[in-house]
Amino acid sequence: MSKEMLNALDALETEKGIAKEIVIEALEAALVSAYKRNYSQAQNVEVEFDMKKGNIHVYAVKEVVEVVFDSRLEVSIEDALELNKAYEIGDKIRFEVTPKDFGRIAAQTAKQVIMQRVREAERSIIYNEFVAYENDIMQGIVERQDNRYIYVNLGKIEAVLSKQEQIPNETYKAHDRIKVYVTKVENTSKGPQIFVSRSHPDLLKRLFEQEVPEIYDGTVEIVSIAREAGDRAKVAVMSRDANIDPVGTCVGPKGQRVQAIVNELKGENMDIVEWNENPATYIANALNPAQVVDVTFNEAQGSCVVVVPDYQLSLAIGKRGQNARLAAKLTGFKIDIKSESDMAALAEVKEETDLETVAEYVEAVEENMAVEAENDAEEVLESIEDLEESREVSELDSETEEDILNPEDAEELIELAEEQDGVDE
């Protein structure tokens, strides 16, 4: 090795961004393997690279022992003391064993190993660089496409754009410049793999941050985004400064700011609405451009009924229900849209139903009262009959008692008893 090697390492560090220390470490490890393989050596070997002169030195490392069993790994204490009287048992001594032709052999043997380490270092650098762009936006150039992916060149690496992440009906040609949202960065065995998207809602958020300084610095905040990529999107914004209109700020002078985003997304329509802490107001804003008359909530089901004028029912629902669907995604409520006439008809039906219910209830009460009255009358009659029977029984008992207590009958009974006693005697 010579200074040309050092110059090559400097160029590699400049072009590839790989530190010389990484390459030299890989080179030393490769040279150890090359020496053992080419010179049939199995002892402990160290390779030292001189970063000033570019020279390579190979050293055999041996341990100082009293009795030598393996001369390739050990050296006696007597031989060690001849080299330096400070050596003791257990010390390690390095002996230079650099072959004369080692430079040529080492270069041939270590080439593949060095290239492998260089590739690994490049992969690590690329991964560490692009993992910082995860969940962020980047600009790339369309290079090619196949049945599965569109490959976008981001500079040092190609990113893949799957069909699911593409904007429907958007065509991509080679050398087109597009902005993509980095969804995931993986460090695979084949190197870093970057997945990007054009349909992700956060792509819209990053584009607004680029076009609207107030969003980037936090004065205006994007609260929620509902998007059907390539067709239409709704963005709810709020302002932390009472003097700043969040919707006007995002639209920009003559609509320039929002138009730049629409152009980037190939004509995707944008509805920018103002967020409000009152859910009814927020839902009314989300259904723009339709006007809302009334909003009734069902908190148990997380839904609401929105009343709009008859002539704006189709506008509120939107094409294929898109306006109502995006408003529901934006606000988080299930939205049922009714016209004023439908609500009036429902109110009449409900009123009639309530009247019928009241009439049925009155009839039921009257029937119940009649039944109770009949039952009460029967009970009264039964009570009277029972009372009369009770009185008759009382009178009979009284007569019987009087008969038993009659004095004349008592005297007759006594006389009969005395006559009976005489007969017995």
Describe the protein in words:
- The chain folds into four domains: 1-128, NusA, N-terminal domain (N Utilization Substance Protein A, Chain:P, domain 4, 2-Layer Sandwich); 135-197, Nucleic acid-binding proteins (OB fold (Dihydrolipoamide Acetyltransferase, E2P), Beta Barrel); 200-275, K homology (KH) domain (GMP Synthetase, Chain A, domain 3, 2-Layer Sandwich), CATH 3.30.300.20; 284-362, 2-Layer Sandwich (GMP Synthetase, Chain A, domain 3).
- Helix 2 packs antiparallel against helix 4 (102-130), helix 5 crosses helix 8 (256-264) and helix 9 packs antiparallel against helix 11.
- The chain has helices spanning 3-16, 20-38, 77-83, 102-130, 201-211, 213-216, 246-251, 256-264, 279-286, 313-317, 322-331, 340-404, 407-424, and strands spanning 45-49, 56-65, 74-76, 92-96, 137-145, 149-153, 158-162, 177-188, 191-197, 220-228, 232-239, 269-274, 294-298, 303-308, 334-339.
- It is α/β, with parallel strands linked by helices.
- The model is unreliable at 398-405 (pLDDT under 50).
- The longest helix is centred in the last third of the chain and has 65 residues, at 340-404.
